[in-house]
Amino acid sequence: MSGDLKWNKIFGAGLGTAFVILVVQQASGLIYHSEPPKKMGYFVDAPEEAAGGETAELPPDWGTVLPTADLAAGEAAFARCQACHDGHQGGADKIGPNLWGVVGGPVEHRPGFAYSDAMTKHKGEVPTWTYDALNSFITAPAKYVPGTKMSFAGIRDAQTRINLIAWLRTQGASGYAIPAPDPARQPGAAPAAGGEAPVTEGAAATEATGAAPAAGGAAAPATTQATPAAPPAATSPAPANH
Fold first, then answer.
1. 37: phi then psi, degrees, rounded to nearest 5
2. Do the beta carbons of residue 124 and residue 196 sit within 8 Å?
3. How far apart are CA 66 and CA 1, in angstroms?
4. Which end of the chain is more exposed for a tag (fewer CB within 10 A), N or C?
5. Helices marked H in the chain — which ranges?
6. The pLDDT value given to residue 202
7. How does pLDDT run across 146-179, given as a tens digit for each residue?
8. How far apart (Å, rounded) are the C-alpha atoms in residues 113 and 94?
9. Rounded to an integer, what distance in angstroms lies between the CA atom of residue 181 and that of residue 169?
10. Domain boundaries, the chain
11. What is the rounded radius of gyration, in angstroms, for the C-alpha atoms of the chain?
12. Which residues pair with 106 in a beta bridge?
């Protein structure tokens, strides 16, 4: 009989412990209960970098910057490319293709090199390595050709890129012409018009009728009320031209 009571006590103690645990959980849930907020916290507007105010950089005026570029600095800048590229004639392809003659040459200019699918797609859109194309690619390769195998982060300094491209041009691409300087971007050039010139009073009538303005700058009035019209001459009317 005493043995049966012993196991009953053990079972009762375990059951009581489980009951206490359940009661404590329910009580703590009621005490520390918190309602979800009806309105989420402060909204933080964090626009993406593309819409964050980065102004597009104007491409260099190649006719002005290339003749004055520092070729020695450009060759020094190419040192950071030598781990993946050779820029000399007859050099072998490395991780990246040899860059001899790349300036002004076709995209994927090295036959037999395993270019990425992204570069092949880019070739269909921009088939030639123009100055502008090279400048954009060197600035941020992965951004200009998404999916390219080139892991280089890019060169952000514009003058360094100019020097590098000028030096690359001396490596088998000297025949690729340098464009004439842009007159609108020369010192002292008049700013480009932002739209049509304002129309002065009287000019609207000149544009509409095609009549030349008067010598004083204002268009001549269409009619003059002060002087009455002269009576018609007593002659037979001239035939109309058809």
1. -65, 140
2. no
3. 108
4. C
5. 2-31, 62-65, 71-77, 117-125, 131-139, 141-144, 158-169, 203-209
6. 39
7. 999 998 999 999 999 999 999 999 999 999 999 9
8. 10
9. 17
10. 62-173
11. 40
12. 128
